């Protein structure tokens, strides 16, 4: 495999690692979960699955929907499905941050987690190997619901995930509000500090990756 691809895969992996730290800290902050975290946590109350396993299973289901909607899927999409959930499971197993009982400390821990998510996003999106299945679903629906702002489309998707999570018993609170509305500001601050223009990233889907790697292999064989 080309060294450039190994570097990009490493970048995606690092991104998922930081993203998972952020998700783990948002759980341990104990002041309310983000929409998809609430959904995943809620499912664990009803099925014999770990939090990470729920992320994987739900990611695969959403991936199938993305494919039906003909949205581009890349190697980064698949790594997102399998890595992030298992990283969170690992952090929960290690238990290096206790469940926070103090509200103000919980807010600090949540904010640190949000910055970790922003840093993870910088790494994995910057690899240019397509986004995760949930973001891909937002893009796919946005293309088909052109009369609606993309923010509304995202809000409907995450609102549905949050409602289902809340109905299943997941904790919803101030942390949920910070996660929903604060992440945009935190992403902006992080991207500006790192001088990262997310709109300039050119993504490569699985088909393009396959053809590029096959082409490189043929060149090596003919050399």
Automatic annotation (TrEMBL):
Pfam families: DUF6198. It comes from the Bacteria. The chain crosses the membrane at residues 17-39, 45-65, 77-97, 103-127, 148-168, 174-194. Keywords: Membrane, Transmembrane, Transmembrane helix. PANTHER family: INTEGRAL MEMBRANE PROTEIN, INTEGRAL MEMBRANE PROTEIN-RELATED. This is Uncharacterized protein. It comes from Candidatus Anaerotruncus excrementipullorum.
């Amino acid at each position: 495999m080309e060294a450039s691809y190994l570097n990009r895969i490493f970048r995606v992996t690092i991104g998922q690692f930081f993203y998972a730290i952020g998700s783990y800290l948002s759980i341990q902050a104990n002041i309310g979960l983000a929409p998809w975290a609430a959904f995943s946590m809620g499912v664990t109350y009803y099925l014999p699955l770990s939090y990470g396993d729920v992320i994987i299973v739900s990611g695969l289901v959403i991936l199938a929907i993305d494919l039906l909607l003909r949205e581009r899927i890349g190697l980064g999409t698949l790594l997102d499905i399998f890595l992030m959930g298992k990283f969170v499971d690992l952090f929960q197993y290690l238990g290096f941050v206790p469940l926070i009982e103090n509200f103000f400390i919980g807010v600090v821990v949540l904010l640190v987690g949000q910055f970790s998510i922003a840093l993870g996003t910088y790494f994995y999106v910057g690899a240019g190997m397509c986004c995760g299945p949930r973001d891909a679903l937002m893009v796919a629906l946005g293309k088909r619901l052109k009369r609606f702002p993309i923010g509304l489309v995202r809000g409907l998707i995450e609102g549905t995930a949050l409602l289902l999570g809340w109905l299943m018993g997941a904790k919803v609170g101030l942390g949920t509000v910070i996660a929903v509305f604060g992440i945009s500001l935190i992403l902006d601050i992080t991207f500006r500090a790192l001088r990262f223009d997310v709109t300039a990233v050119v993504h490569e889907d699985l088909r393009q990756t396959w053809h590029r790697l096959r082409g490189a292999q043929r060149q090596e064989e003919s050399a």
